[in-house]
């Protein structure tokens, strides 16, 4: 079976490809299956529709240019494409250590993005050395095992049966219709405390599917143990109906993390095309969203007293009148990634940018004009009060860039800071702090104030 390790914005080619970095050849059948799946429109970071890969050509060969999605894709013939973040240089492409570092970074960021990857794997397993598809399945098993160990949810179910002795209450209507040769048996109805309920049925079906998909013997063994613990639970026969009936009582809240796992597994490991018929099995994550969530989590850890909001909606840059006597309608929706409220300080508007800055260029190292214009628009609506207004663009740090970039003075007392986050640290620092002494010093330098005139 073909196993390919690629990165964001690499090129997938139909047929053979040269051994150049960033170009990967796929068998024609696998490429055709991937092309149909990767060009299905999905919801992007800001709510707009986008595709996971864009069609292109390499010479006369059909090709797909990957976008900012990472994860793992598996075609029906067993071809697997693992997509990793673009945080390492191409020099170490074939280096197992470099691939392991990229996987470890992805898992660390995903752990901040949701509960699915916060489960602790056994000490003898290193997820950075495992194939991504197997890591996802093992994390799912560990989350389900933690939930089952704390207790399987039960519920009272009404049971109707024919038996020799009385239990519960006698069903008179059915008993009166009893034929003479069975009159010695009683039709009874009673309530029994059973584990057969929507949540456990979905978990049972998810574990069965993981047991069929995994290729690791230790994961299959763990799946068998969980199936033994769920021996009294039948697998779900109506997945959609059971999901709509998922409701945990107060004593079973520890089972809540299982919901996301069941959705992941029972939607054919494909949260993007849930409910559609797809021949491709995939787990994909939009790195724009993952990076935004990761930065927000870092800010909450560094500053517990700060209020950090993400993806605030409902504001627009302008409005128009469709008719002279009509009601104004908003246009140009605004949706900043982060709105930060430090106590006793003005609000900070920040946007996370999952982009590579250019270390070989002069300042601002490739920060786009459109990004600066976007921050001005955000500030106009979300920072209406006059005075010093702080704006931040948050990029991943890359080797060759300065540790700290100079602040940019914008009209209206606004200061734009380009923040660099070193993702290869265990707990990176996100420095949004902007002291008024720094602002004043920078303003004096730009105005040409001599040192002797500074107070």
UniProtKB/TrEMBL annotation:
Pfam families: McrBC. InterPro entries: McrC (IPR019292). It comes from the Bacteria. This is 5-methylcytosine-specific restriction enzyme subunit McrC. It comes from Deinococcus budaensis.
